[in-house]
UniProtKB/TrEMBL annotation:
Residues 167-312 form the Glycosyl transferase family domain. This is Glycosyltransferase family 1 protein. Gene3D superfamilies: Glycogen Phosphorylase B (3.40.50.2000). One of its GO terms (biological process) is lipopolysaccharide biosynthetic process. It comes from Candidatus Roizmanbacteria bacterium CG_4_10_14_0_2_um_filter_39_13. Pfam families: Glyco_transf_4 (PF13439), Glycos_transf_1 (PF00534). Keywords: Transferase. Residues 32-145 form the Glycosyltransferase subfamily 4-like N-terminal domain. GO terms for molecular function: glycosyltransferase activity.
Length: 341
Protein backbone atom coordinates (compact mmCIF):
# COMPACT_ATOMS: atom_id res chain seq x y z
CA UNK A 1 0.00 0.00 0.00
CA UNK A 2 1.50 3.30 -1.15
CA UNK A 3 0.32 6.52 0.44
CA UNK A 4 1.24 10.13 -0.34
CA UNK A 5 0.99 12.40 2.68
CA UNK A 6 0.59 16.02 1.65
CA UNK A 7 3.26 17.82 3.68
CA UNK A 8 3.47 21.12 1.83
CA UNK A 9 3.17 23.00 5.15
CA UNK A 10 6.03 21.22 6.92
CA UNK A 11 8.75 23.70 7.82
CA UNK A 12 6.53 26.74 7.18
CA UNK A 13 5.73 27.59 10.83
CA UNK A 14 2.07 26.80 10.14
CA UNK A 15 1.57 25.43 13.63
CA UNK A 16 -0.80 22.55 14.33
CA UNK A 17 -1.28 21.47 10.71
CA UNK A 18 2.47 21.12 10.18
CA UNK A 19 2.95 19.26 13.46
CA UNK A 20 0.17 16.83 12.62
CA UNK A 21 1.61 15.90 9.22
CA UNK A 22 5.22 15.77 10.40
CA UNK A 23 4.51 13.51 13.38
CA UNK A 24 2.10 11.27 11.48
CA UNK A 25 4.71 10.79 8.76
CA UNK A 26 7.36 9.83 11.34
CA UNK A 27 4.99 7.30 12.92
CA UNK A 28 4.05 5.76 9.54
CA UNK A 29 7.53 5.71 8.02
CA UNK A 30 8.94 2.61 9.75
CA UNK A 31 5.85 0.45 9.33
CA UNK A 32 6.10 -2.61 7.09
CA UNK A 33 2.46 -2.59 5.99
CA UNK A 34 2.66 0.82 4.31
CA UNK A 35 4.97 2.74 2.01
CA UNK A 36 4.45 6.42 2.81
CA UNK A 37 5.89 9.32 0.82
CA UNK A 38 5.86 12.89 2.13
CA UNK A 39 5.00 15.42 -0.55
CA UNK A 40 6.73 18.73 0.15
CA UNK A 41 6.96 20.05 -3.41
CA UNK A 42 8.76 23.22 -4.32
CA UNK A 43 8.35 25.86 -1.62
CA UNK A 44 7.82 28.41 -4.41
CA UNK A 45 4.94 26.53 -5.96
CA UNK A 46 1.43 27.73 -5.20
CA UNK A 47 -1.46 25.78 -3.79
CA UNK A 48 -3.14 25.67 -7.19
CA UNK A 49 -0.12 23.95 -8.78
CA UNK A 50 0.17 21.51 -5.88
CA UNK A 51 -3.48 20.49 -6.07
CA UNK A 52 -3.78 20.41 -9.87
CA UNK A 53 -0.36 19.14 -10.91
CA UNK A 54 2.10 18.29 -8.11
CA UNK A 55 0.15 15.73 -6.13
CA UNK A 56 -1.56 14.00 -9.11
CA UNK A 57 1.78 13.74 -10.95
CA UNK A 58 3.48 12.17 -7.95
CA UNK A 59 0.58 9.76 -7.51
CA UNK A 60 0.92 8.57 -11.12
CA UNK A 61 4.70 8.38 -10.91
CA UNK A 62 4.85 6.11 -7.84
CA UNK A 63 1.50 4.36 -8.50
CA UNK A 64 0.08 5.59 -5.21
CA UNK A 65 -3.05 4.00 -3.76
CA UNK A 66 -4.04 6.92 -1.53
CA UNK A 67 -3.43 10.65 -1.22
CA UNK A 68 -3.93 11.95 2.32
CA UNK A 69 -4.37 15.73 2.56
CA UNK A 70 -5.32 18.28 5.21
CA UNK A 71 -8.68 19.97 4.46
CA UNK A 72 -8.31 20.29 0.66
CA UNK A 73 -7.65 17.33 -1.67
CA UNK A 74 -6.31 17.41 -5.25
CA UNK A 75 -8.76 18.59 -7.89
CA UNK A 76 -8.04 15.65 -10.19
CA UNK A 77 -8.88 12.41 -8.41
CA UNK A 78 -6.41 9.75 -9.56
CA UNK A 79 -6.39 7.68 -6.33
CA UNK A 80 -8.42 7.07 -3.22
CA UNK A 81 -8.38 10.20 -1.07
CA UNK A 82 -8.36 10.81 2.67
CA UNK A 83 -8.63 14.27 4.22
CA UNK A 84 -8.10 15.39 7.79
CA UNK A 85 -10.34 18.22 9.00
CA UNK A 86 -8.97 19.64 12.26
CA UNK A 87 -11.89 21.95 13.02
CA UNK A 88 -14.66 24.14 11.59
CA UNK A 89 -13.55 27.48 13.02
CA UNK A 90 -13.89 29.08 9.59
CA UNK A 91 -17.64 28.45 9.81
CA UNK A 92 -18.06 29.36 13.48
CA UNK A 93 -15.84 32.45 13.38
CA UNK A 94 -15.53 33.64 9.77
CA UNK A 95 -14.41 37.08 10.99
CA UNK A 96 -11.14 35.51 12.12
CA UNK A 97 -10.24 34.60 8.52
CA UNK A 98 -9.27 36.61 5.47
CA UNK A 99 -11.69 36.88 2.55
CA UNK A 100 -9.42 34.59 0.52
CA UNK A 101 -9.48 31.95 3.27
CA UNK A 102 -13.26 32.22 3.59
CA UNK A 103 -13.69 31.66 -0.16
CA UNK A 104 -11.35 28.65 -0.14
CA UNK A 105 -13.03 26.97 2.81
CA UNK A 106 -16.57 27.71 1.65
CA UNK A 107 -15.98 26.27 -1.83
CA UNK A 108 -13.07 23.83 -1.92
CA UNK A 109 -13.64 22.15 1.44
CA UNK A 110 -17.22 21.04 0.62
CA UNK A 111 -15.94 19.73 -2.71
CA UNK A 112 -13.11 17.84 -0.98
CA UNK A 113 -15.49 16.39 1.62
CA UNK A 114 -17.88 15.22 -1.06
CA UNK A 115 -15.11 13.51 -3.05
CA UNK A 116 -13.12 12.02 -0.16
CA UNK A 117 -13.26 8.30 0.48
CA UNK A 118 -12.61 8.83 4.18
CA UNK A 119 -12.37 11.80 6.54
CA UNK A 120 -10.41 12.01 9.79
CA UNK A 121 -11.30 14.41 12.62
CA UNK A 122 -9.40 14.74 15.94
CA UNK A 123 -12.26 14.74 18.47
CA UNK A 124 -15.88 13.75 18.95
CA UNK A 125 -16.62 17.47 19.13
CA UNK A 126 -15.38 18.05 15.57
CA UNK A 127 -17.37 15.04 14.40
CA UNK A 128 -20.51 16.60 15.90
CA UNK A 129 -19.65 19.89 14.21
CA UNK A 130 -19.31 18.07 10.90
CA UNK A 131 -22.87 16.75 11.14
CA UNK A 132 -24.10 20.32 11.38
CA UNK A 133 -21.94 21.92 8.73
CA UNK A 134 -21.47 19.00 6.35
CA UNK A 135 -23.93 16.11 6.84
CA UNK A 136 -22.33 14.26 3.90
CA UNK A 137 -19.40 13.48 6.20
CA UNK A 138 -21.53 11.31 8.51
CA UNK A 139 -20.89 7.86 7.04
CA UNK A 140 -17.22 8.26 6.20
CA UNK A 141 -15.79 10.13 9.18
CA UNK A 142 -13.62 8.60 11.89
CA UNK A 143 -12.28 10.17 15.09
CA UNK A 144 -8.53 9.76 15.52
CA UNK A 145 -6.87 11.74 18.26
CA UNK A 146 -3.73 13.77 17.70
CA UNK A 147 -0.76 13.33 20.03
CA UNK A 148 2.11 15.33 21.44
CA UNK A 149 5.66 15.22 20.10
CA UNK A 150 8.11 13.32 22.36
CA UNK A 151 10.22 16.50 22.61
CA UNK A 152 7.67 17.70 25.17
CA UNK A 153 8.74 16.04 28.39
CA UNK A 154 9.72 16.94 31.94
CA UNK A 155 13.14 18.57 32.24
CA UNK A 156 15.23 19.22 35.35
CA UNK A 157 14.82 22.66 36.91
CA UNK A 158 18.56 23.29 36.74
CA UNK A 159 18.60 22.61 33.00
CA UNK A 160 15.55 24.63 31.95
CA UNK A 161 16.28 27.54 34.31
CA UNK A 162 19.76 28.08 32.92
CA UNK A 163 18.55 27.65 29.34
CA UNK A 164 15.69 30.16 29.71
CA UNK A 165 18.02 32.74 31.21
CA UNK A 166 20.58 32.35 28.43
CA UNK A 167 18.11 32.13 25.54
CA UNK A 168 15.32 34.51 26.57
CA UNK A 169 16.74 36.30 29.62
CA UNK A 170 13.82 34.99 31.66
CA UNK A 171 14.78 35.44 35.30
CA UNK A 172 11.37 36.16 36.82
CA UNK A 173 8.48 33.78 37.40
CA UNK A 174 6.08 33.77 34.47
CA UNK A 175 2.79 32.57 33.09
CA UNK A 176 2.89 31.20 29.56
CA UNK A 177 0.43 31.42 26.70
CA UNK A 178 0.58 30.78 22.95
CA UNK A 179 -0.52 33.10 20.17
CA UNK A 180 -1.12 32.87 16.44
CA UNK A 181 -2.30 35.16 13.65
CA UNK A 182 -5.83 33.91 14.32
CA UNK A 183 -7.52 35.92 17.13
CA UNK A 184 -9.33 32.83 18.44
CA UNK A 185 -6.47 32.25 20.91
CA UNK A 186 -8.00 35.02 23.06
CA UNK A 187 -4.69 36.67 23.98
CA UNK A 188 -6.23 39.99 25.03
CA UNK A 189 -8.36 38.27 27.68
CA UNK A 190 -5.27 36.56 29.10
CA UNK A 191 -3.40 39.86 29.30
CA UNK A 192 -6.33 41.45 31.09
CA UNK A 193 -6.49 38.58 33.56
CA UNK A 194 -2.79 38.68 34.38
CA UNK A 195 -2.97 42.49 34.68
CA UNK A 196 -5.56 42.09 37.46
CA UNK A 197 -3.62 39.27 39.11
CA UNK A 198 -0.48 41.40 39.25
CA UNK A 199 -2.21 43.54 41.87
CA UNK A 200 -1.39 40.62 44.18
CA UNK A 201 1.64 39.06 42.42
CA UNK A 202 3.49 41.93 40.81
CA UNK A 203 6.72 40.00 40.29
CA UNK A 204 5.17 37.71 37.64
CA UNK A 205 5.53 38.23 33.90
CA UNK A 206 3.38 36.96 31.06
CA UNK A 207 5.31 35.26 28.26
CA UNK A 208 3.64 34.99 24.86
CA UNK A 209 5.14 32.51 22.41
CA UNK A 210 4.07 32.83 18.77
CA UNK A 211 3.08 35.64 16.45
CA UNK A 212 0.48 38.17 17.49
CA UNK A 213 -3.04 38.09 15.98
CA UNK A 214 -4.08 40.21 13.01
CA UNK A 215 -4.97 43.70 14.16
CA UNK A 216 -3.39 43.35 17.60
CA UNK A 217 -2.16 46.71 18.94
CA UNK A 218 1.39 45.91 20.05
CA UNK A 219 1.87 49.44 21.42
CA UNK A 220 -0.70 48.71 24.13
CA UNK A 221 1.26 45.76 25.52
CA UNK A 222 2.50 46.50 29.08
CA UNK A 223 6.22 46.07 29.92
CA UNK A 224 5.63 42.94 32.00
CA UNK A 225 4.48 41.06 28.87
CA UNK A 226 7.28 39.33 26.97
CA UNK A 227 6.53 38.58 23.30
CA UNK A 228 8.96 35.95 21.99
CA UNK A 229 7.55 35.42 18.51
CA UNK A 230 7.96 32.02 16.88
CA UNK A 231 9.87 29.51 19.02
CA UNK A 232 11.16 26.04 18.18
CA UNK A 233 9.62 22.94 19.77
CA UNK A 234 12.78 22.54 21.85
CA UNK A 235 12.44 26.08 23.21
CA UNK A 236 8.70 25.62 23.76
CA UNK A 237 9.38 22.48 25.82
CA UNK A 238 11.72 24.52 28.02
CA UNK A 239 9.07 27.25 28.38
CA UNK A 240 6.38 24.75 29.36
CA UNK A 241 8.68 23.32 32.03
CA UNK A 242 9.60 26.71 33.43
CA UNK A 243 6.18 28.38 33.59
CA UNK A 244 4.19 28.79 36.78
CA UNK A 245 0.98 28.07 34.84
CA UNK A 246 0.23 27.51 31.16
CA UNK A 247 -2.90 29.43 30.11
CA UNK A 248 -4.78 28.27 27.02
CA UNK A 249 -8.12 30.05 26.50
CA UNK A 250 -9.18 29.68 22.86
CA UNK A 251 -12.70 30.69 21.95
CA UNK A 252 -12.85 27.72 19.60
CA UNK A 253 -10.66 24.65 19.12
CA UNK A 254 -10.70 21.32 17.37
CA UNK A 255 -8.33 19.40 19.62
CA UNK A 256 -6.12 21.66 21.76
CA UNK A 257 -2.69 20.16 21.18
CA UNK A 258 -0.87 22.77 23.35
CA UNK A 259 -2.82 21.49 26.35
CA UNK A 260 -1.43 18.01 25.79
CA UNK A 261 2.09 19.35 25.18
CA UNK A 262 2.00 21.31 28.43
CA UNK A 263 0.67 18.36 30.44
CA UNK A 264 3.35 16.13 28.94
CA UNK A 265 5.92 18.72 30.06
CA UNK A 266 4.62 18.65 33.63
CA UNK A 267 2.96 22.08 33.65
CA UNK A 268 -0.12 23.20 35.54
CA UNK A 269 -2.71 24.04 32.88
CA UNK A 270 -5.70 26.35 32.70
CA UNK A 271 -7.89 25.64 29.69
CA UNK A 272 -11.10 26.92 28.10
CA UNK A 273 -14.25 25.21 29.27
CA UNK A 274 -15.18 24.19 25.74
CA UNK A 275 -15.94 20.64 24.53
CA UNK A 276 -12.63 19.69 22.83
CA UNK A 277 -10.45 20.91 25.71
CA UNK A 278 -12.66 19.04 28.19
CA UNK A 279 -12.50 15.95 25.95
CA UNK A 280 -8.70 16.01 25.64
CA UNK A 281 -7.55 17.39 29.00
CA UNK A 282 -10.21 15.98 31.29
CA UNK A 283 -9.65 16.42 35.03
CA UNK A 284 -5.95 17.16 34.53
CA UNK A 285 -6.83 20.67 33.30
CA UNK A 286 -8.44 23.44 35.35
CA UNK A 287 -11.24 24.74 33.14
CA UNK A 288 -12.52 28.32 33.02
CA UNK A 289 -14.99 30.24 30.90
CA UNK A 290 -12.83 31.87 28.18
CA UNK A 291 -15.09 34.93 28.34
CA UNK A 292 -14.80 35.39 32.12
CA UNK A 293 -11.78 37.45 33.21
CA UNK A 294 -12.91 37.19 36.82
CA UNK A 295 -12.91 33.39 36.79
CA UNK A 296 -9.47 33.34 35.15
CA UNK A 297 -8.04 35.61 37.88
CA UNK A 298 -9.58 33.49 40.63
CA UNK A 299 -8.18 30.24 39.24
CA UNK A 300 -4.77 31.77 38.45
CA UNK A 301 -4.49 33.00 42.04
CA UNK A 302 -5.29 29.51 43.34
CA UNK A 303 -2.81 27.72 41.09
CA UNK A 304 -0.06 30.29 41.70
CA UNK A 305 -0.13 29.61 45.43
CA UNK A 306 -0.28 25.80 45.22
CA UNK A 307 1.90 22.96 44.01
CA UNK A 308 0.66 19.93 42.09
CA UNK A 309 -0.66 17.29 44.47
CA UNK A 310 0.11 13.58 43.94
CA UNK A 311 -3.47 13.17 42.72
CA UNK A 312 -3.08 15.97 40.18
CA UNK A 313 0.18 14.47 38.96
CA UNK A 314 -1.54 11.09 38.59
CA UNK A 315 -4.36 12.66 36.58
CA UNK A 316 -1.84 14.45 34.35
CA UNK A 317 0.10 11.25 33.66
CA UNK A 318 -3.13 9.34 32.96
CA UNK A 319 -4.17 11.87 30.31
CA UNK A 320 -0.75 11.90 28.66
CA UNK A 321 -0.68 8.09 28.54
CA UNK A 322 -3.87 8.02 26.44
CA UNK A 323 -2.23 9.65 23.43
CA UNK A 324 0.68 8.66 21.20
CA UNK A 325 1.55 9.07 17.55
CA UNK A 326 1.88 5.30 17.30
CA UNK A 327 -1.79 4.95 18.26
CA UNK A 328 -2.67 7.72 15.79
CA UNK A 329 -0.75 5.91 13.04
CA UNK A 330 -2.39 2.56 13.86
CA UNK A 331 -5.89 4.02 13.58
CA UNK A 332 -5.00 5.93 10.42
CA UNK A 333 -3.70 2.79 8.71
CA UNK A 334 -6.95 1.01 9.59
CA UNK A 335 -8.83 3.68 7.63
CA UNK A 336 -6.41 3.37 4.68
CA UNK A 337 -6.96 -0.39 4.55
CA UNK A 338 -10.72 -0.07 4.87
CA UNK A 339 -11.12 2.20 1.82
CA UNK A 340 -8.90 -0.11 -0.26
CA UNK A 341 -10.99 -3.19 0.44
Amino acid sequence: MKVILDGHMVGTKEGGNARYVQNLYKALFDRRDIDVVLYTGDKNEGNLYRLCVGLPNMARKIHADIIHSTYISPFLKTTKTVITVHDFSFYRYPKFFTLREQIIFSTLLPWSINNADAIIVPTEFVKEESLEFSPKMANKTGVIHDASDPVFTTISKKKYSQYLIEKFYLKKKYYLCLSSVNPKKNIEAIIQGVRLLREHYSDFELVIAGVLPHGFDKSSVPPWVRILGFVSDHDLAMLYNGCEVFIYLPLYEGFGLPVLEALQSGAKVIGSRIPPICEVGGNAVTMVDPNSIGELVQVLKKLTTSSQTPKQQMLRRAVVKKYSWQKTADETVKIYKKILQ
